[in-house]
Model the fold of this input.
Amino acid sequence: MPHSSTDFKLEIQNHLDKNFSRDIKILDVGPGAGMYGHLLSKYSNVLKYSLGFKLDCLEIYSPYIEKYNLKDVYNNVFEGNICNFNFSNYDYIILGDILEHLTIKDAQTVIDKINKNNQKCIVAVPYLSKQGEHEGNTYETHLQEDLTPEIIKQRYPSLNLLFGNEGYGYYINYNLKGMKEILIQEYNNLIKKPIKFKLPTNTFSVSNIMGCKFEVLGKNKKNYNVKFIDQKDNKVVYESDITNNMWCKTSKQYFVDYKIQVTDKENNNLVFEDIYNAENKKVYIHFASKAIGDTLAWFPYAEEFRKKHKCELVVSTFHNEWFKSTYPEIKFVKPATEIFDLYAMYEVGWHYGEDGGINHNLNPLDFRKIPLQQASPDTLGLDYKEIKPKLTFKNTGPTIEGDYVCIAPHGSSHAKYWNYKGGWQTVIDYLNNKGYKVVMITQEPLGDKWHDSKLGGTLKGVINKTGDAPLSKRANDMMNAKAFIGIGSGLSWLAWALNTPVVMISGFSEAYSEFNDCERIEGPKDKCRGCFNKVRLNAGDWEWCPEHKDTDRHYECTTSIKPQIVIDAINRQLEKNS
Done:
């Protein structure tokens, strides 16, 4: 933890005050919150004067440097590991709660170096203390959990006990001869001073990383009531009673505009209040889907969140290159990148629970009952309105002479297809007769027997741009097309984002599922349709049709969509773009 034990801190002040000159060079290793810097360089309320020591510090975990304002406490602040740091120019080394974080070998090496340099050191050690990482800081892990006075004497024979109790000890590597009488005298003087006893103060902290967490640290035994209040309606979302060195956390991991109120249960006094405020703080948003459509639909709300909260926003998607140069105020990282010093973190996606139902700790609403794009503002606490992303794809000009229309008839599930027999060929023939070329741009190759069979045979009268190709080339073809015809798939979302007039044919989803800026064709009202918005898609079943599979009604949602309906929609879009 960044805060060490408060045991014997007054004695340590007196020990250095009476036995060392103010011109010695002191290095505080692993200062955390800077306790020794405050103890030895600032004004002492007990001693009634400033101790006046000048200290440097070496901190391994960079976020602590800013969080605890270490540059205001120490003369010089270094970032690094004591195991490979050159500390030979210092007279005195403070290893406060450090040895337990090092391996035995590394700790022995550090102590040996100090002794060989004829440097003095003081070592503070908690006994039999177990601890893992703290708020993402893996350096907080204890690697020597078995330390006791006996073990310390065995492993570090040059260290002698200075002060200690059953849980904590201070050790030094120098001889106290000549200091003993002074220490006794000063200790007796301390006893005579009318020092008012003051309980150690507990510290409170709040984290908004995948849920809101409140934690109490400290040795002052207190009982607290903690309320997490949604400021939107001032209702208590979660409430818990905890004591010191405990934490509580909400199960809801999406954005809630929280106010946290903490009361001392002994007197019911409000002792702490925190109101969500991300301004100028680091917030991380991860988009959990690799799908083209999901990413294009959800991403624009990252920028809306940044603008609303005026935060320092970090974003990870599986397609950062689509957005990076057009959103310069956002820092992009790869998924799973470890980000330090976060104020908040959220994950946008469609999340199911183990029971197959909606995981309402990650998604406030049933995402099957709202537009796909709304899942993002729903998670991030923003108002929904249809927003197109600003993409990095460049229009390098047409690669096909004359007017043309792009088509993308393939999808990731047979249920997404337009399954009217001969439907695509009828539309292609109509467009060719009107003087339009038809360009097929799916990854699924034209001429492949299995894929062609899903379209009623190999399509004729098309320019073949299928197969593997960079998405930037697909985008360029779309940007120069008069229209795009597709199904409920990622390429339809790409055409929408690029402002290409879109005709979308989809029976397996309800009309509200996709974007509004298109000619949307759905199955007749008297036919089964919209199964995608009722039950979870079984991606492992290519012929998925939850209600009518292997019957004469299999895929009736699109087998009942006649070509003339599609042709009429195409003409409306072509007229807009003429």
